[in-house]
Specification:
The protein is α/β, with parallel strands linked by helices. About 35% of the residues lie in helices and about 15% in strands. The strands form 4 sheets. A 6-stranded parallel β-sheet has the order 2-1-3-4-6-5, sandwiched between helices. A 6-stranded parallel β-sheet has the order 15-14-16-17-19-18, sandwiched between helices. A 5-stranded parallel β-sheet has the order 9-8-10-11-12, covered by helices on one side. β16 (about 395-400), α14 (about 400-405) and β17 (about 420-425) form a beta-alpha-beta unit. It is globular, with a radius of gyration of 25 Å.
Length: about 525
């Protein structure tokens, strides 16, 4: 089929289906779509975001999709370009994000013939269905649930001057509001545990559900749910405390991916219920499983609610006391940042230590919109995801580790102009490994810690990125008082990884002791 007409038809359909953000990367075979999108942009029907490489483009699109909860398309040429979308696709698949991948392809007749830049792109992403398109098809029943892959065969000539008003009379569909089911829940007492991904539910849905139950709530993301029992991942490392607070029911919303202590606590419950909209997670064993939160609830109150509040209070006091003695650590820095962030701004939290430190030591009363790539918890593509999130917010903050920054450092070659401040915890390597059994390995530094030995300030200024370095609480406090103006990175120099592991061990012991003694369990 004529490449120009095929591209225009697909673009028109996507606009009518409500897709407005397209992340494009340069190429030849995708030229028909790029030109069609350019025409649509001139009529202010779409927003185009140009990214240099497809790996970063996929994560950039993912960031917009997570922030907008709408389909965002990433468009690339044929060959290895398409393969570079795979990491972002896997993250989208496991987090239920609405990522739309449009890969341009040669005609099917050229596959297996040695034709240049031609491979088997149909079915390239085995976790989702590919739609191999050679002619006009109806996308209405295809672009309905993310992620989605459209592999479009374009035959030459790729570019033709066809004069027609192909965007006239376009009508954009409005997405119908989700209708809540009238599911019922009838349980004895228990505890609610909210995973970082929230199971694909809106925060307001979860808040209403928790209010009806009036049970203790544990949240991997305590910033989004300030009414939760903070520091639980620390004090639930104590077997006596788990035994004393053991619930009849553990009601889990989404996936819990951060702390072994929380998962051990869930497994200690007599019964388990999982609520998750992401069908990827439907093979978990539980007494109750549903993709909707019930609206009719008849459950017994948890008689241990006062105990949970006491544990939270005791843990908080112990943390304040211990961190006051330590004065400067990764945990001190992260607590300071979270306490000072302006209400209603966006916060992206990197994998490994930052997200676990927030779960463990932060207790916030501020309402922030928190995001993270917890689908597969990878450190790749995080900077690009942050740049994508920044498209949807007036102000965006992020906390990531040094290896996470370096893993996606190429994103700074294609920076954005939004107000984004990225805090980088620099402990010269993979800090999380110092807290795992691998720390005892004889060749630990080379095999696991992988110290980069780089001056991150020098690396970033080499990309012409505004960069500051802080190495104590006073310097960080002064910087937090400054307004964010454009893109900037703050490198936070913290004690070496071994010291941080010792700090976390001491904090955990102190919190467990304080809670156990305070609850007369010693």
């Amino acid at each position: 089929m004529n490449a120009t007409k095929l591209a225009r038809n697909l673009v028109r359909q996507l606009i009518e289906l409500g897709v407005s953000d397209f992340v494009i990367s340069p190429g030849s075979r995708n030229a028909p779509i790029l030109l069609a999108l350019s025409e649509a942009e001139k009529l202010q029907l779409v927003d185009l975001h140009s990214r240099l490489d497809e790996r970063g483009a996929g994560y950039f699109a993912l960031g917009i999709a997570k922030a907008s909860n709408n389909f965002v398309a990433a468009v690339c040429t044929s060959g290895t370009a398409a393969a570079n979308y795979l990491p972002a696709l896997l993250e989208a698949y496991h987090s239920g994000a609405k990522l739309l991948l449009i890969t341009a392809d040669r005609p099917a007749k050229l596959r297996g013939t040695g034709a240049n830049q031609t491979t088997y792109q149909d079915g390239l992403y085995s976790v989702i269905k590919s739609h191999d398109i050679a002619t006009i098809i109806d996308l209405k029943n295809i672009v309905v649930d993310g992620p989605v892959h459209l592999n479009v065969q374009f035959d030459e000539p790729l570019i033709e001057k066809i004069s027609e008003n192909w965007l006239d009379g376009i009508k954009i569909e409005t997405e119908p509001a989700d209708s809540q089911t009238n599911g019922k829940l009838n349980l004895t007492s228990g505890v609610v545990i909210i995973g970082h991904d929230r199971g694909g539910f809106e925060t307001t849905e979860i808040e209403a559900f928790c209010k009806k139950l009036n049970w203790p709530v544990i949240a991997e993301d305590p910033i989004t749910f300030p009414f939760s029992i903070s520091h639980a991942s620390l004090f639930l490392q104590d077997a006596q405390i788990i035994k004393n607070l053991k619930p009849d029911w553990a009601v889990v919303i989404g996936r819990t991916t951060l702390s072994r202590s929380i998962n051990n606590f869930i497994n200690s419950a007599m019964h388990q219920a999982y609520f998750d909209r992401n069908v990827v997670n439907d093979k978990r064993a539980a007494d109750i499983k549903s993709n909707q939160l019930p609206t009719e609830i008849s459950c017994q109150p948890n008689s241990d609610l006062d105990k949970w509040q006491m544990a939270k209070s005791l843990a908080s006091k112990s943390l304040n006391d211990e961190l006051g003695k330590i004065k400067w650590s990764e945990q001190t820095a992260i607590r300071m940042i979270c306490q000072e962030l302006p209400t209603d701004s966006a916060l992206f939290v990197g994998a490994s230590r930052p997200t676990r430190d927030i779960e463990a030591v932060v207790s916030s009363s501020k309402k922030l919109q928190v995001f993270a790539n917890r689908g597969l918890s990878g450190i790749d593509g995080n900077i690009s995801t942050i740049f994508g999130l920044g498209q949807e917010f007036d102000l965006t903050h992020a906390i990531v580790g040094d290896l996470t920054l370096l893993h996606d450092v190429s994103a700074f070659s294609n920076p954005v102009a939004n107000n984004i401040r990225i805090f980088v915890i620099d402990n010269n390597g993979g800090g999380i490994f110092s807290m795992l059994p691998a720390a005892e390995a004889a060749d630990f530094e080379r095999l696991f810690a992988t110290p980069h030995n780089l001056d991150l300030h020098q690396v970033l200024t080499g990309f012409s990125i505004k960069c500051s370095v802080v190495s104590n609480a006073s310097e960080l406090s002064k910087l937090l008082d400054k307004e964010v103006n454009g893109l900037e990175v703050v490198v936070i120099k913290v004690p070496e990884r071994k010291v941080n592991a010792e700090v976390m061990q001491k904090l955990t012991q102190s919190v467990c002791n304080a809670v156990r003694i305070g609850m007369n369990l010693a």
